[in-house]
Amino acid sequence: MSTVEISLIAVEVRKWDLEAQKINLLSYFVLDKNENNIVFDVSILQPPEMVEEFLGKMRNECTQKLEGEQGEEEIEIEFDNETFLRQKLYNYFKRITSELNNPRRRKGQPKMILTTHMDIYNENQDVSFLPKHIQFYVVLNWVRKYYEREDYKRAVEPLRKLIKVEPEYGLGYKWLARSLKKIRKYDEAMRYYEKYAEVDRSLDAYLDLAKSYRKGKIFDKSEEIYNNILAEAPTNKEAIIGIAQIRYATKDERYLEILDQLHKEDPEWLNEWLVDEFNFRIYNSEKTLLTPTQAAKFMGYKQIFELTQRAFKNEIPSHFNPSKARLSFYKEELENWAMVMNRYNCLGKKVELYPNKINFVESESNEKVAQTERNYPKEKPAKNNASSTKVEEILTQIRARKAERLAQQQHNSNQANHSNKQDATKKSAGPKKGKSGSKSETANPKGKNNNSIPPEKGASSNKQPRNKKKTKTTQKSEEEVS
């Protein structure tokens, strides 16, 4: 009988069945310095019972796997640091059962397991005491947890730890470079693409580096790498179309010759690449900026939503600024895209463009801007006295509309306050002056003269009041008394 030790790395809940009272678990573990995984069900019971069932099934699954591979009769499975492992599993299963039996769950809300992943060793834990190969797979699990969910920002730090633990692991540099690129740290990403090519020395590594240089507008280095690849593999399509991309980006019309040749050799591959991968961005300032409204008119869409939906799916060339949440287009890029799509019939139908409609939208926008400039004073010109772009004109229009709304709101508020003040003045003045009139009326209810009134009171009624201004009500009451 031989003894084999396995090190559990992570446990992940794939799905659960509340009718059958079972959860389906995916377990990652290290065996013979290699990572393996096993999937099996565990019954939803009390946490101690779930721990025993889990460890028992792990032993059985690993034993069957090893006996099938090695052909040995008996193999005994032992767990690395089993006491610590049991405590981690107990806490994990306890949390799962508490989430399923949550008393605060709203009526009609389904039972859910929120904690679907459990690391045996946490990210903030020092794992330097573990063997080197165990450290590597522990950190690799941290990376996989974020990278596979496309949470690139949180994947960066585990990836830095990964290449520190294993500097010769090429994919670690590739994943780190890609994660940095996704969070818009392009310069640092390019350095790690270079390190990836240096360590891995594979065709994919050199293609990724050439692509990184091309997107960074370092066209000479990019083209040099593509040519080196073609020297060893003349039929490599990605390197060929990479050179076509460089020619397109630099406004070299010879890119169409390369695309024509690729279309003759493999039209399906080219069409798929043009639709999904080809970058129609032009890297120079001689471009006509279009707003989403103008681009929608230019491409014949009735609603802007139809255009923006395709833009966010990367089906048409567009530019998105996440810091300002602004989507923009360029007329020349859309024209080139439509020309290429029609030239190789990539979409199965002809793309129609309507340049005359852009002028209509522009004139309408300019008319509105001119109207706002007449109604509101112009802003101070910039120091460089540069002519305002279309985006600035639209921003001016938006600011003017906002100022108009605020002015209207302020005007309405002032009117309401003035009306409230008048009502308050009438209410405060009415009862006081009406009171003196009521006294005079009650003093002579049947029209009797004031001889019956005591001299003091009669004299006081004829006295001039402190407030020289008399209301009509007071004057009328005095006339009745007299």
Structure commentary:
The chain is α+β, with helices and mostly antiparallel strands and 482 residues long. Among the domains are: 1-102 and 112-120, no CATH class; 289-375, no CATH class. It has helices at 47-70, 82-100, 132-147, 152-165, 170-182, 186-200, 203-215, 219-232, 237-249, 255-265, 267-276, 292-299, 304-312, 331-343, 356-375, 390-443, 455-462, 472-481, and strands at residues 2-17, 22-31, 34-43, 75-79, 117-119, 289-290, 319-321, 326-330. The strands form two sheets. Strands 1, 2, 3, 4 and 5 form a five-stranded mixed β-sheet that branches. It has a three-stranded antiparallel β-sheet with strand order 6-8-7. The relative contact order is 0.04. Mean pLDDT is 81; it is low at 360-388 and 432-482.
